[in-house]
Amino acid sequence: MKVALVGLMQSGKSTILSAISGKPVSPEMMNIHEEVVPVPDERLDWLTELYKPKKTVPGTIDCLDLPGMSFADDSGRAAARRLFDQVRTVDMLVLVVGAYRGSDAASELSELKTEFLLADLELVTTRIERLEKQVHKPSKTQAKDKAELALQLKLQEALENEKPASTVIKTDEDYALVKSLGFLTLKPLMVVMNVSEDDLGKEFDLSEVAGEDMEVVAMCAVVESEIAQLDDESKAEFMADYGIEEPAAHKFVQSCYSTLGLISFLTVGPDEVRAWPIEKGTTALDAAGKIHSDIKRGFIRAETIAYEDLKELGSEKECKAKGKARLEGKNYVVQDGDIINFRFNV
């Protein structure tokens, strides 16, 4: 999973990345900075104690920190467009907005969303011009080009009316036609509000700009970055002093997973304990393919135990004795925390 942190200058993006990665703020402020952030998961900690594996592998989020943007003039907008083009392949966008020292979080969020609309509109306009030339030339892709042109014209109308591409792209067929373009307004969005120390715990309402369904996480970047550099004991004391219930990385990852509709299944053994992120609704057959294509191709069954059952009973042997170990077929929908051993034959 790859996410991009986007925000205006001085919004606190780099400090947020430091807080969730535990790494110092990068001095490379003029370039896209990348950190791979492990996904905190207490289940992995417990399973590691139980199985004593040679290694434990958490899920990860690949976070890209874009340089701060300014849309005050044409030069700033042109620089932002170039950055947008570099992150059109990410899975989601995290919009970092300031809510401290007089910063207007709602205005910053509105400005970012408007620039996404404009960037996508430029892309659509260019694509329409190209397609209008192509559709009149007999070719193997003529029918597909005509279908895409009709869709792009709908997108143009929506974007001109300040509606995102997601209001137009509703089917898998439509998505397949435009997937390669990486529309920004088609991507899942999440908001991180960078608040001051004094406003920790304060309720903020961005629903008028963000919408009711968008995940909004509030954190103090400076405080959270300092916490991330401490040992576990000092972290607990520091968090208690500020009334922070969980570290920034936990809140950030949980919101990313929620926004993208992700869960994790787990594999265990003496060699490795690992978390595998998948989309909600993934079948056992497709989950097997996340591990290796051979396992999917030769799928026989999925030996499954719920994490909570294993934790309660203490061992796989007890789970089997109590009827908590199940044999699931290829169409079984994997649940969050399922511990799976795939049986296969190739």
UniProtKB/TrEMBL annotation:
<protein>
    <submittedName>
        <fullName>Ribosome-binding ATPase YchF</fullName>
    </submittedName>
</protein>
<dbReference type="InterPro" id="IPR012676">
    <property type="entry name" value="TGS-like"/>
</dbReference>
<keyword id="KW-0479">Metal-binding</keyword>
<dbReference type="InterPro" id="IPR013029">
    <property type="entry name" value="YchF_C"/>
</dbReference>
<dbReference type="Pfam" id="PF06071">
    <property type="entry name" value="YchF-GTPase_C"/>
</dbReference>
<feature type="domain" description="TGS">
    <location>
        <begin position="261"/>
        <end position="344"/>
    </location>
</feature>
<keyword id="KW-0067">ATP-binding</keyword>
<dbReference type="InterPro" id="IPR004095">
    <property type="entry name" value="TGS"/>
</dbReference>
<dbReference type="InterPro" id="IPR023192">
    <property type="entry name" value="TGS-like_dom_sf"/>
</dbReference>
<dbReference type="InterPro" id="IPR004396">
    <property type="entry name" value="ATPase_YchF/OLA1"/>
</dbReference>
<dbReference type="GO" id="GO:0046872">
    <property type="term" value="F:metal ion binding"/>
</dbReference>
<dbReference type="InterPro" id="IPR012675">
    <property type="entry name" value="Beta-grasp_dom_sf"/>
</dbReference>
<dbReference type="InterPro" id="IPR006073">
    <property type="entry name" value="GTP-bd"/>
</dbReference>
<dbReference type="GO" id="GO:0005525">
    <property type="term" value="F:GTP binding"/>
</dbReference>
<dbReference type="GO" id="GO:0005737">
    <property type="term" value="C:cytoplasm"/>
</dbReference>
<dbReference type="InterPro" id="IPR027417">
    <property type="entry name" value="P-loop_NTPase"/>
</dbReference>
<dbReference type="GO" id="GO:0005524">
    <property type="term" value="F:ATP binding"/>
</dbReference>
<keyword id="KW-0547">Nucleotide-binding</keyword>
<dbReference type="GO" id="GO:0016887">
    <property type="term" value="F:ATP hydrolysis activity"/>
</dbReference>
<dbReference type="Pfam" id="PF01926">
    <property type="entry name" value="MMR_HSR1"/>
</dbReference>
